[in-house]
Structures are given as structure tokens and as C-alpha cells.
Amino acid sequence: MEAPGSSKKMVATQEEMVEAKVPLAYRDQCAHLLIPLNRCRQAELYLPWKCGSERHSYEKCEYELVMERMLQMQKIREREAQLKSQPIPLLPKTANA
């Protein structure tokens, strides 16, 4: 399963995310990394200096998704700017002209 507009595939299934109680807002292409991170956090009593490698891999995945969306938005804006720069005819062309 692949999310529209993204190059990353969904690795975690809906059943896995429901079982791990991943909130809906976090069910993206990086959810497969969030599940072990949350398990580690619970096991380590949410100590901030624990689970560093899991947190780093999850945050890197999220960063890559954000950068990908920013690049897509930049391409959309460039296309819109090209369309706006084209002249708009003031008078419509008629068959008799």
C-alpha cells in the first residue's frame, strides 16, 4: 500500500497501528518506526536519554516526508507562476475575424 503523492510505502498495516494504539494523526509512512519507539518509551519510563536510535530513525523519516512535501509544493507553485506569466487575450478570437 502506498500513500498518494509520496515515494515511501506504508510498511505498518492498519491492524498493527490499531493494536499499537497509534493516534490517527501519526498513521503515516513512518508509523512502522513509531511503534517500536513507543514500546521502547514505555519500557524505559519515557526517560529522554533512552531510545535514542529509535527516535532518530523516526524523526529522520518524518523529516524526509516533510522535505518531500515541500518539494512537491514548490513544483506546484512554479507551475502556477508559469501559467500566470502567460498573456491572457483581451479579445476572444471569432470565426469572422
Could you name the key traits of this structure?
transport; membrane; 55% helix; mainly alpha; mitochondrion; 3 helices; electron transport; NDUB7
Shape: elongated
Give average pLDDT, whole number. Answer: 91
What value does the Rg take, in angstroms? 22 Å
Helix/strand class: mainly alpha
Report on the biggest sheet.
none
Which segments are poorly predicted (pLDDT under 50) over 5 or more consecutive residues? none
Number of strands: 0
Please estimate the helix content. Answer: 40-55%
Strand content: under 5%
Order of helices and strands: HHH
Please work out how many helical segments DSSP would assign: 3
Please give the alpha-carbon distance between the first and last residues. 55 Å
Gist of the model:
55% of the residues lie in helices and 0% in strands. The chain is mainly α and 97 residues long. Belongs to the complex I NDUFB7 subunit family.
Describe, in plain words, how this protein is organized in 3D.
By secondary structure, this protein is mainly α. Helices cover 55% and strands 0% of the residues. Helix 2 packs antiparallel against helix 3. The longest helix is centred in the C-terminal third of the chain and has 34 residues, at 52-85. The N and C termini lie far apart (55 Å).
